[in-house]
């Protein structure tokens, strides 16, 4: 049986690390209860175990095929999709008036963690569909919602985000796909998109593509990009399917991981043009699409954390059972072998995995709680604060779990030794699936530029100072704590160093922006380490509150493990920022000054 994210871990993060039960006091959730939340999570766990986990390896081994002009995936994918949709997870967070359950965002994301851990590739289809439907709910006209939203919510339709082009990756302001206005108010799209996840498959009646294109005659650059709804098949006013649209599958891409999520090349307008419907305002497409992109970025961080957690759970199970060698102090070859977990270096690797996986989960659910506060907190000032802090942290929440998820899954293979390198054990697939996460939804360098070049300086550094103030509040609360004071002081030093080096780089950027941003990926990593340390301090505080009154011996060990892992992170991982701050403060020029011709 595949291991998912442990129930105890989810309960701790939702109800002890976060105050998810406090959401029940908000009008939107007055009819809910913790029992409803827990029942939802249990339903997600059971569907994930029964319909997603069993074909995780099979979907990896039997890649999608290009047959008769369309993509074909293994039939188990359809069963999983149907169960997910019928259980209401595609629209669980929608308003009741829309047919939803008004589930809090943070509870939905915790439920999705079960599916991500069970089978990330199959989970990619609902993950994208939820985002596409949210985009339609935010910016669609009433007619567009009537035509497409019900299908996206009940599983008849799936959705995609169709951004990248063969000649343009992340530089979306330079896309070439063109939209030609028609007399009936629609548009005809012409162009090609690449790396479109879920761009074609054979288990839904229709696929609704969210496509970025430039209206004919629009200004150059990002200010001339618009967003369009382009269905694979046209939809009539009554919701029935019409004729096939001029959207063709040009090919499938063969990937290292996530193999059961089709990665497609799509051609729009090979004949008369693909019929598209303008979503939102003309020339505001990138601004609109950033809703789905930011949602996906937090989702990618959560996916990375779940894959790291799975690798940690698999390797922990293995080393607890596998006998191997003896302790250095045991010289007698007749003594029985000890289990791998008794070796100190194995426990070091396990601690690192636990720190990265559980730290990433905490970071992502904290971001989901900010999203919730941004929309449903009763006080407008708190909604604004949550929005500003979430915007600042989004590149960190996407990038840090992805980077260290890869490190964690690499350690999982190492702990299994030669067995970890074989397909008989799941950790090699987990690593391959994980390796995509630092790339998609913006590579690390892009998020470093975004964080240092835009996010920390927004509104005269308001977001940066809010981060400093929010973390500082937690630090001051724990500076007098007998067990956690040393962690609070270490975080205070790191936080002050982060703010100081940020001020230095922002001052340099006035005259030398290229040099100031040259090491922004290192800045992103340092910011992520400080944020992760903050998350671990908060987890340690929650564990300490409960440690003296545990319900069971298991709980006592669980809380002790949380506190010990927090201490590990502060002693082994956080100090790396000292060297990073030194390099950043002096704007180390070595990579910047390297000349192309010297790469020989």
TrEMBL record:
One of its GO terms (molecular function) is flavin adenine dinucleotide binding. It comes from the Bacteria. Coiled coil: none annotated. Residues 161-261 form the Acyl-CoA oxidase/dehydrogenase middle domain. Residues 44-155 form the Acyl-CoA dehydrogenase/oxidase N-terminal domain. The keyword Chaperone does not apply. Pfam families: Acyl-CoA_dh_1, Acyl-CoA_dh_C, Acyl-CoA_dh_M, Acyl-CoA_dh_N. Its cofactor is FAD. Keywords: FAD, Flavoprotein. Residues 476-594 form the Acetyl-CoA dehydrogenase-like C-terminal domain. The keyword Flavoprotein applies. Residues 283-449 form the Acyl-CoA dehydrogenase/oxidase C-terminal domain. Belongs to the acyl-CoA dehydrogenase family. This is Butyryl-CoA dehydrogenase. The lineage of its organism: Bacteria, Pseudomonadati, Pseudomonadota, Betaproteobacteria, Burkholderiales.
């Amino acid at each position: 049986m595949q291991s998912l994210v442990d129930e105890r871990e989810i309960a701790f993060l939702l109800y002890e690390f976060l105050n998810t039960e406090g959401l029940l006091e908000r009008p939107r959730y007055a009819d809910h209860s913790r029992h409803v939340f827990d029942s939802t999570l249990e339903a997600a766990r059971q569907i994930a175990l029964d319909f997603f986990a069993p074909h995780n390896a099979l979907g990896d081994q039997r890649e999608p095929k290009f047959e008769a002009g369309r993509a074909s995936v293994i039939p188990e994918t359809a069963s999983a999709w149907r169960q997910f949709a019928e259980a209401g997870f595609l629209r669980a967070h929608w308003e009741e008036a829309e047919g939803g359950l008004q589930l809090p965002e943070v509870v939905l994301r915790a439920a999705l963690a079960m599916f991500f851990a069970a089978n990330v590739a199959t989970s990619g289809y609902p993950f994208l569909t939820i985002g596409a439907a949210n985009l339609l709910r935010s910016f669609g006209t009433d007619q567009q919602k009537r035509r497409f939203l019900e299908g996206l919510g009940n599983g008849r339709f799936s959705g995609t985000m169709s951004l990248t082009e063969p000649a343009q990756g992340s530089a979306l302001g330079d896309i070439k796909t063109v939209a030609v206005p028609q007399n009936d108010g629609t548009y005809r799209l012409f162009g090609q998109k690449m790396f479109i996840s879920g761009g074609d498959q054979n288990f839904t009646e229709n696929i609704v593509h969210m496509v970025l294109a430039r209206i004919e005659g629009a200004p150059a650059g990002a200010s001339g990009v618009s967003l369009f709804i382009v269905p694979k098949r046209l939809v009539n006013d009554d919701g029935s399917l019409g004729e096939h649209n001029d959207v063709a599958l040009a090919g499938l891409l063969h990937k290292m991981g996530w193999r059961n999520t089709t990665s497609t090349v799509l051609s729009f307008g090979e004949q008369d043009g693909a019929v598209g419907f303008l979503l939102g305002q003309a020339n505001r497409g990138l601004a609109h699409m950033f809703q789905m992109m930011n949602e996906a970025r937090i989702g990618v961080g959560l996916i990375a954390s779940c894959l790291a957690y799975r690798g940690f759970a698999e390797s922990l199970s293995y080393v607890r059972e596998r006998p191997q060698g003896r302790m250095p102090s045991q010289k007698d070859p007749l003594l029985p072998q000890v289990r791998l977990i008794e070796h100190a270096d194995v426990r070091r690797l396990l601690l690192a995995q636990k720190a990265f996986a559980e730290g990433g989960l905490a970071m992502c659910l904290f971001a989901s709680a900010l999203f919730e506060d941004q929309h449903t907190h009763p006080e407008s000032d708190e909604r604004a604060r949550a929005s500003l802090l979430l915007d600042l942290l989004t590149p960190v929440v996407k990038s840090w779990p992805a980077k260290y998820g890869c490190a964690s899954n690499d350690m999982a293979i190492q702990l299994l030794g030669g067995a970890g390198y074989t397909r008989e054990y799941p950790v090699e697939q987990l690593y391959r699936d994980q390796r995509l996460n630092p790339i998609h939804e913006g590579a690390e360098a892009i998020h470093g530029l975004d964080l240092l070049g835009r996010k920390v300086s927004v509104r005269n550094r308001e977001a940066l100072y809010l981060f400093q103030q929010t973390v500082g509040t937690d630090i001051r609360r724990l500076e007098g704590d007998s067990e956690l004071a040393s962690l609070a002081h270490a975080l205070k030093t790191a936080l002050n160093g982060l703010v100081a080096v940020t001020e230095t780089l922002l001052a340099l950027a006035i005259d030398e922006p290229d040099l100031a941003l040259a090491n922004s990926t290192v800045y992103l990593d340092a910011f992520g380490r400080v944020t992760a340390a903050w998350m671990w301090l908060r987890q340690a505080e929650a564990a300490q509150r409960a440690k003296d009154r545990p319900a069971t011996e298991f709980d006592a060990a669980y809380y002790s493990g949380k506190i010990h892992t927090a201490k590990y992170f502060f002693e082994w991982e956080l100090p790396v920022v000292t060297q990073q701050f030194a390099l950043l403060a002096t704007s180390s020029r070595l990579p910047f000054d390297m000349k192309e011709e010297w790469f020989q």
